[in-house]
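Review this:
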Amino acid sequence: MTAPAFSVTGRKVVVVGAARSGVAAAELLARRGASVTLTDMRDAIPQEGHLRAAGVALELGGHNSETLLRADLIVLSPGVPPTQPAIAAARAAGVPIIGELELASRWLRGRVVAITGTKGKSTTTTLTGRMLEAGGHRVLVGGNIGHALSAQVDDSTEDTIHVVETSSFQLECTDTFHPWIAVLLNFSPDHLDRHADIAEYAAAKARVFANQTTEDWALLNADDEPSQTLAQDARARRLLFATEQGLREGVLVAGDAIVRRSAGGDQVLVPLSAVKLLGRHLLADVAAAAAVAWIVGVDPAAMTQAVETFTGLEHALEPVTDIGGVRFVNDSKATNIEAALRAIESFGSGLVVILGGRFKGGDFAELRAALVERGATVVAIGEATPLVREALVPAVPVNEAADMPAAVRTAFAAASPGDTVLLAPACASFDMFKDYAERGRVFKQSVAKLQAEWSGTREQ
């Protein structure tokens, strides 16, 4: 017997959080016939007029407990912790609570490729979408990047493949979310300012496999033992990918190419010469994307075409410029210790690293050996500055800067021609910036200003 279609017609639905995902969810719910209230802690939000015109009631300046308790359904934006007292009270009273990702997925008509992991999600998601498009498929890319999944529901068709970046915040409030292909890139401590402990963070990530069947696929990183453990209960068919290990079967780097290895031999998917990305660790993202494309049935020539034209994402090991022989690289997306370590390991000796921001958990001491090996200097910024200094001094020289322009100047002063200044904060941005993207833009603006001043000085 087929389960009844999900319907919100005539139901009172409260959406909590008016960021990108919450706004998209509220608009979708209104179009589907719900009586929608959108609540946010802010006193004002940019989209007020548009939302009211769409029939969405707004409650700003805090979350009203009575509104939540009277709801037939509560939908949480990813940035809203489900442990907030008003939300916890509604749950205790029996009000169903789901996340925006879960809501949208219930109305999708196409298949879902869900990509998660501690690092590399955005690069892999974007490149996967490009590979599938190059292979002639109808693709919508979104989720934790680009458009929220709720904004794509109306465009979903039976032949659509939704390539969705999924964070732990999105996954922890899923119930029926069912990817055809679930990709776990890696797993290491992160977001411990939100999750109670690493076990809770792992449980959230593992939900990407929860509703898969033996007809689905789980793509796992053979080089990353923690992700193997996290996925141990997955029921889906497994396909391993690797850049370091030799596999009897799977997608791996062999010789000068990424290949699909099976009992019948190696099938070349993407030659390494096509990869334009900085950093060996980003090769794992290419391998993961190629593994998805292979399952979907994309021709290797189309995969290679997509890779050749992909030079990376903004704020992900993004080359900025060269000033006086000093290279500047923006990896503002390196918001945790593991991501920062992989960025640091992408460069040789002569490195100046800008570290810091709002601490999310982990141990800065894990960066010490790689920094020492490269003779690196650190410029610490933001709330985490004391933690950076405590973990690295005296093994690594640590300077401090009050803001990003000062950090760029301090880093340039510490560098010599041939060196690299790398922004790899290992922290969230929210102590100084709206998000990692704003942090990256301010870094690039500060570098551009420094370059103009340096060029002017040279011409005098």
